[in-house]
Amino acid sequence: MSVKRGRALRQAAKSGIRIVIVVLKNYSHFVHWPCYSQRRMSKKSRPGKLEFGGRWTSIKLDALEGYLPAYTKIFTKNPAARHFSTMYVDAFAGTGRIAYLPDQQDRLFDERDEYVKGSAARALEVKPEFDRYIFIESNPSRYAALEELKSTYPDKSDRIEVRKEDANLFLKRWCAETDWKIWRAIVLLDPYAMDVPWSTIEALARTQGVDLWWLFPCGAFNRLLTRAAKPPQPWREALTRICGTGAWEERFYEVHTHAGLFGPMQIEQKLSNFTGINQFLRERLESIFVGVAKEPLYLVNSQNTPIFMLFFAASNPKGAATATRIANWIIAHGGN
Ligand SMILES: C[S@@+](CC[C@H](N)C(=O)[O-])C[C@H]1O[C@@H](n2cnc3c(N)ncnc32)[C@H](O)[C@@H]1O
Predict the structure, then answer these.
(1) Which of 63, 171, 231, 266 is the most exposed place for a label (fewest CB within 10 A)?
(2) Ligand 1 close to Cβ of residue 65 (< 6 A)
(3) Does ligand 1 have an atom closer than 6 angstroms to the CB of 137?
(4) Confidence class of residue 28 from pLDDT cuts 50, 70 and 90?
């Protein structure tokens, strides 16, 4: 076989395999969950394992990327909003780029690793631009990568602040110190797990100047809600810290008393499912934010089990209706 023909065949086989993989990976599990079943995979999303998270990472980032320019446009064009300065705050910022770890098929073809842009890099490319960018990252090497990212945007570097500290501590201080007569902000909370206590969410709501995208780890939350009986004490404390109330207990468990051999026995039965968790969290958000998107964006694993729910909430009484309308549209279109 000639070298040219061999190369052409390898190329054709490679694209054929890619098409099959893309179809199988992208469409096989887009069923069941609200705000998910109708979604198309955007051109920007692609299959493969990601350094942070999984396929849902691209979907989440596409949702954010859809919202940011709509937001900055309002604060550039709308006469009632133009006098505000805008800030983008990425509280669990990562590095600005996320590596695709090659899958088996890619390795066959000796493909090099690729990267997708993370939330920080996407925010830096939004037009119209923000007046200020704050990236918070507690991991030293990721913090260093963010500093490097900053240096690749010299035209904006005096507007970018990179902080190496705990996101919750920073946010509470920042909420209290920012002059909300001048500033409006978008905050992205994108933790790996249950790292955000309700007290942080409350601080953001109190500002009346923040629009919040919150990646809620519903998979981890659901695992803490043990099936056989109510969770052990440390888990109960974690659930209460995340929800800001102990009301989850009544909501997610039913207690029956039965006559036992040695007297009455209490049987605790778990009632929760993902729809119940979604409703409970939305009610919690509605109790402190003026506007909350009517559904979160469900992000599921390859077994179609929700791992995260991306909630949107707006704290400004004047802007909340428009903000939630835009977020509802983005969520209903699966993040695109
Ligand atoms: C899911 S990754 C963020 C991905 C990022 N949003 C992106 O799109 O590239 C979560 C990040 O939060 C950082 N992190 C974890 N706990 C933190 C904390 N308490 N404060 C600040 N950063 C934290 C981790 O080091 C990790 O880089």
Answers:
(1) 266
(2) no
(3) yes
(4) very low
